[in-house]
Design goal:
This protein is globular. A 6-stranded antiparallel β-barrel has the order 1-2-3-6-5-4. The chain has a single domain (22-126), classed as Thrombin, subunit H, CATH 2.40.10.220. The chain is an alpha+beta fold. The protein has one helix at 95-129; strands at 22-27, 33-41, 45-49, 59-66, 69-77, 85-93. A hairpin with a 5-residue loop joins strand 1 and strand 2.
Length: 132
Protein backbone atom coordinates (compact mmCIF):
# COMPACT_ATOMS: atom_id res chain seq x y z
CA UNK A 1 0.00 0.00 0.00
CA UNK A 2 1.09 3.54 -0.70
CA UNK A 3 0.15 6.69 1.10
CA UNK A 4 -0.21 9.90 -0.87
CA UNK A 5 0.55 11.76 2.36
CA UNK A 6 4.16 10.66 2.64
CA UNK A 7 6.53 12.19 2.12
CA UNK A 8 4.74 15.42 2.94
CA UNK A 9 5.06 18.06 0.29
CA UNK A 10 4.45 21.77 0.67
CA UNK A 11 2.98 21.99 -2.84
CA UNK A 12 -0.76 21.44 -2.97
CA UNK A 13 -1.99 18.60 -5.12
CA UNK A 14 -4.23 19.71 -8.01
CA UNK A 15 -7.93 19.58 -7.13
CA UNK A 16 -10.59 18.52 -9.60
CA UNK A 17 -14.36 18.54 -9.62
CA UNK A 18 -16.00 15.44 -11.07
CA UNK A 19 -17.82 16.21 -14.33
CA UNK A 20 -21.01 14.57 -13.06
CA UNK A 21 -22.57 13.51 -9.77
CA UNK A 22 -20.21 10.99 -8.21
CA UNK A 23 -21.74 8.94 -5.38
CA UNK A 24 -19.41 7.87 -2.59
CA UNK A 25 -19.86 5.31 0.17
CA UNK A 26 -18.13 5.56 3.54
CA UNK A 27 -17.87 2.44 5.69
CA UNK A 28 -16.97 2.55 9.37
CA UNK A 29 -15.08 -0.22 11.19
CA UNK A 30 -18.34 -1.25 12.93
CA UNK A 31 -19.97 -1.89 9.52
CA UNK A 32 -22.09 1.27 9.50
CA UNK A 33 -22.33 2.96 6.09
CA UNK A 34 -22.98 6.53 5.01
CA UNK A 35 -23.74 7.61 1.46
CA UNK A 36 -22.35 10.86 0.15
CA UNK A 37 -21.27 12.66 -3.00
CA UNK A 38 -17.73 13.42 -4.11
CA UNK A 39 -17.55 17.16 -4.81
CA UNK A 40 -13.81 17.84 -5.10
CA UNK A 41 -10.90 15.41 -5.12
CA UNK A 42 -7.12 15.30 -5.34
CA UNK A 43 -4.62 12.51 -4.83
CA UNK A 44 -4.35 13.54 -1.15
CA UNK A 45 -8.02 14.01 -0.25
CA UNK A 46 -11.14 15.91 -1.15
CA UNK A 47 -14.52 17.25 -0.18
CA UNK A 48 -17.67 15.20 0.32
CA UNK A 49 -21.31 16.21 0.37
CA UNK A 50 -22.90 14.33 3.26
CA UNK A 51 -26.36 14.22 4.87
CA UNK A 52 -24.73 15.44 8.12
CA UNK A 53 -21.14 15.91 9.32
CA UNK A 54 -19.16 12.99 10.69
CA UNK A 55 -16.94 13.18 13.75
CA UNK A 56 -13.60 14.85 13.08
CA UNK A 57 -10.87 12.23 13.00
CA UNK A 58 -13.20 9.39 12.06
CA UNK A 59 -11.36 6.85 9.93
CA UNK A 60 -13.48 5.28 7.22
CA UNK A 61 -13.13 3.20 4.11
CA UNK A 62 -14.13 5.39 1.18
CA UNK A 63 -15.25 4.08 -2.20
CA UNK A 64 -16.36 5.90 -5.34
CA UNK A 65 -16.45 5.17 -9.06
CA UNK A 66 -14.69 7.11 -11.80
CA UNK A 67 -14.30 6.58 -15.54
CA UNK A 68 -10.86 5.18 -14.71
CA UNK A 69 -12.45 2.60 -12.37
CA UNK A 70 -13.28 2.28 -8.69
CA UNK A 71 -11.19 3.94 -5.99
CA UNK A 72 -11.16 2.35 -2.54
CA UNK A 73 -9.05 3.42 0.38
CA UNK A 74 -8.81 4.59 3.96
CA UNK A 75 -9.70 8.20 4.68
CA UNK A 76 -9.67 10.44 7.73
CA UNK A 77 -12.52 12.92 8.12
CA UNK A 78 -11.43 16.50 8.74
CA UNK A 79 -13.46 19.30 10.41
CA UNK A 80 -16.68 20.02 8.46
CA UNK A 81 -16.88 23.25 6.46
CA UNK A 82 -20.70 23.31 6.59
CA UNK A 83 -23.59 21.14 7.71
CA UNK A 84 -23.44 19.22 4.43
CA UNK A 85 -19.78 19.45 3.32
CA UNK A 86 -16.80 17.78 4.93
CA UNK A 87 -13.23 17.43 3.74
CA UNK A 88 -11.25 14.23 4.07
CA UNK A 89 -7.64 13.14 3.76
CA UNK A 90 -6.64 9.83 2.21
CA UNK A 91 -4.68 7.65 4.58
CA UNK A 92 -3.62 4.72 2.47
CA UNK A 93 -4.39 3.66 -1.06
CA UNK A 94 -3.23 0.54 -2.84
CA UNK A 95 -1.09 1.28 -5.88
CA UNK A 96 -3.92 0.36 -8.30
CA UNK A 97 -6.39 2.65 -6.53
CA UNK A 98 -3.83 5.45 -6.44
CA UNK A 99 -3.25 5.03 -10.20
CA UNK A 100 -6.99 5.13 -10.95
CA UNK A 101 -7.40 8.19 -8.73
CA UNK A 102 -4.54 9.99 -10.47
CA UNK A 103 -6.00 9.14 -13.89
CA UNK A 104 -9.46 10.37 -12.82
CA UNK A 105 -8.10 13.65 -11.43
CA UNK A 106 -6.05 14.27 -14.58
CA UNK A 107 -9.07 13.49 -16.77
CA UNK A 108 -11.33 15.87 -14.83
CA UNK A 109 -8.67 18.60 -14.91
CA UNK A 110 -8.22 18.16 -18.67
CA UNK A 111 -12.00 18.31 -19.20
CA UNK A 112 -12.25 21.46 -17.09
CA UNK A 113 -9.37 23.03 -19.05
CA UNK A 114 -11.05 22.20 -22.39
CA UNK A 115 -14.35 23.70 -21.22
CA UNK A 116 -12.60 26.84 -19.96
CA UNK A 117 -10.69 27.23 -23.24
CA UNK A 118 -13.88 26.85 -25.31
CA UNK A 119 -15.69 29.38 -23.14
CA UNK A 120 -12.79 31.80 -23.42
CA UNK A 121 -12.65 31.47 -27.22
CA UNK A 122 -16.37 32.16 -27.40
CA UNK A 123 -15.96 35.25 -25.25
CA UNK A 124 -13.07 36.47 -27.43
CA UNK A 125 -15.24 36.06 -30.55
CA UNK A 126 -18.04 38.08 -28.96
CA UNK A 127 -15.58 40.84 -28.04
CA UNK A 128 -14.05 40.82 -31.54
CA UNK A 129 -17.39 41.26 -33.30
CA UNK A 130 -19.07 43.52 -30.75
CA UNK A 131 -20.42 46.74 -32.17
CA UNK A 132 -19.16 49.59 -30.00
Amino acid sequence: MNSPLSPRSKARAPRAQPESITPAVLRFSDGRRVAGELQVVSVTGGLLGLPRPLDRGSVVKLMFLTRAGSVFGAAEMLPPVSWVQQPFRFGTLHHDDQSRLQAAVQGWLAQSHREHSQSRRGHEQVEKHRAW
